[in-house]
Write a structure and sequence with these properties.
disordered N terminus; glycosyltransferase activity; Rossmann fold; glycosyltransferase; Glyco_trans_1; 18 helices; transferase
Length: 394
Amino acid sequence: MERVNTVPNILWITQGWPSDVAPSAGAFHCETVSILKQEFTSLTIANPIPWVPYPLEKFSTHWKNLSAIPKYQKDGNTEIYRPRYLTTPKENHLFLAHLFQHYSLSKIINKVSPSLIHAHFAYSSGATALWIKRKRGIPYVLTLHGDDVTVYPYRNKRAYKLFKKTVLGASKVLAVSHALAEEAKSLVSVDIDVLPNGIDTTKFFTKKTKEEARNSLGLPLDADITIYVGNLTEEKGILDLKQSLMSLKWDKRVSIFIGDGPELSNLQSDPRNVCLGAIPRLNIPVWLKAADYFLLPSYHEGLGQAAVEAGAVNLPVIGGNVGGLAGLLKDQRGILVTPGNTAEITQALELLKGTPQYARKIANNLASYIIKNHDAHHCAKYLEKLYIHLTAKN
């Protein structure tokens, strides 16, 4: 990257950043930020976390984990602040969180003095940035990621109005996929650029062969191994996936699930399922390398970052025919299935197992596409130019 004379202070507001407690939260940001820090040494991360009053953490694992997330950490030369804010039950239904987040961020804004905010997700980070802009005059960039477009604006009139104001208040709006950008444009008439979450394939990669990966993980060499990475929820197609896998007549089947969520115990009832919980993102490639097929039969996806990462490791992908995932896997870059259709998932798996040449073809097609379109260095370069352009105008 070319150096510039004036380097603006950038504050990212996001709903997740990895920690020991939640190693996968917001992990898709890390590689782009690492590259951006080479140019913007003053780039700071703000990740507001709900305040957990004593003794609530004693009665719920969820609240216990939130309470344990550090208020401050450093990843390399990146500072991450996690101010606590007052929250309410079902905060993403009442749409009040951004008001409290604004106050929780006051000390950080005073310390960092940002010239530009980059908010990730329209709600609640984007709405928080809008409030800060109104109070302090700091412009913001908004990146749309998924549920903030496909779910929240449809919940009630207040949600839609807040979404519209948040999008219109941004100096620039980005979306992680073309499908997401089109849906956002149907809700609010505004120009939106598509900028996927970047992946650095030189880091998110393992040189192990499939046999070496299986040996290192204690997995059988002669098994057919499927893998899923993501939240273990019904809307991710987990129940459909479980039913489909159980219907397979394969002699030796192992199914790996990386992630956490309400369907974890449901999956653990099948002894052929290996449930790892949430693990650090850079530990995932070796598990992907050990697998034969990647599955993400979601009901909606802004992009499907887990499928991008599986493709980077040259795995054939089966995904839900929805949102950005449909665009990612079209043109023989994967197999698309109708959400909720377990028979299609089963048929796709049987097809890949029975035609290994086809499986290799779609895996190679996806890997080539990802290298060309999802490179973290390209994403960082785009953001570098955008930040400098926008701050030069103010």
